[in-house]
Amino acid sequence: MEKYSKWRDSGTGIQPFLQPVPARTQQSALASVLGSTKHYLVGPVIAAVRLAALAATAVVDAAAAAIGSLLIVPSVKRGYSRLTRSLLARLALFVMGFYSIDTKTVGLQKGRRGGPKARSTVKSGDIIVANHVSYVDVLWLVAKYNPVFVEIDNASAYARRISMWDALRAPARQTPALLKASEARPLGAITAEARVRSLGPVVVFPENATSNGRALLRLLPVFDQTENLDEKAQIHIVALKYPAQSFSPAYSVGNQFVHLFWLCCQVYSSLTVRILEQDECPRISDAAGHCDDDAEPVNVDEAVRDRLLQLSRLRMTKLSAMDKRDFLKFYYQHAKGYRPTI
Question: Nearest 5°: phi and psi at 137?
């Protein structure tokens, strides 16, 4: 749309904020009627059943969390939380139509030979760096890792912990320009706390906002500050994509509950996940101030960006989370009805 051309990336020509729209194809009259029947009659019935199941799942999660809060031993509490949350998150994905998720651990180095690849182990206090396309990302990450989620300050790159529910709702609101000084903490302190208290790995979305999945937003320099570096934390890189022929699970703008309703109208939805092999992920121990004196220091932010670009096979735009904030302000000023949560 011409009125949103300001937010079209000049380098790639991609508009990363508008909700994806399926390409129009020539259809016969019969196919058009059948498609409309499925979309407007069968779909809402399926969605009603699914939304009721999701509500029941949320109630069970709240009850399980209340029981878990009574546990005292950290390792037992972590094990119980991971078991219940992971099962319920995977159940929620199944209910929403993600019956089978294409997940693979891959390498980027071509023609590599050798023995069996080392198994990637994600521990409490490790850092999972992922692109951010939808609230569905959060459910998959919970099902896989039951991690700690953080929100990043756009100026200092410090962060604050947020709950799973806050992470699910975050794409529906404008990204805060700045976090409260009393809440922002160095990422290194958060990862160290997660390791000591067995809270799980820490998920970082360096884009700090959702895109529509067609490109990556400019990444925040999360590892630029020395206080954000925790040498004991291993970095893991994950790329998520949502192949879609009709309604896309990608969520970048609009009413989140309306998006969820139409997502649940689909018979099935697709998600592909690519996890980078651990030995190809950047290491904080190679950063300046942490590596050996005779070693060439690595810019961890640049290394993470390069790996994520290759793993996702997406292009990088010059647009940032702050551009997304400006876009949402303009979008909702010209939209009728729904307004985002600020």
Answer: -50, -45
Among residues 190, 197, 201, 194, the alpha carbon closest in space to that of 227 is found at: 190
SS3 288: coil
Residue 213: how many CA atoms within 13 Å on its side-chain side?
23
Here the tokens at position 192 are 């160290």
Residues 6+ apart with CB under 8 A from 45: none
Position of tokens 């997304």? 324
Provide the token pair at 230.
Answer: 């925790």
pTM of the predicted model as reported, rounded to 2 decimal places: 0.91
| Residue 234 DSSP one-character state | B
What are phi and psi for residue 272, nearest 5 degrees?
-115, 135
Confidence of residue 43 (pLDDT cuts 50, 70, 90): confident
Q: Residue 59: phi, psi to the nearest 5? A: -65, -45
For residues 280-306, average pLDDT: 86
Query: Could you tell me the end-to-end alpha-carbon distance of the chain, in angstroms, rounded to an integer?
Result: 25
DSSP for 106-160, please give it: E--STT---SPPPPP---TT-EEEE----HHHHHHHHHHH--EEEEE-TTT--EE
Phi then psi dihedrals of residue 5, to 5 deg: -65, -20
64-84 pLDDT tens trace:
999 998 988 888 888 999 999
CB atoms inside a 10 Å sphere around CB 73: 10
Tokens standing for 205?
Answer: 């979305």
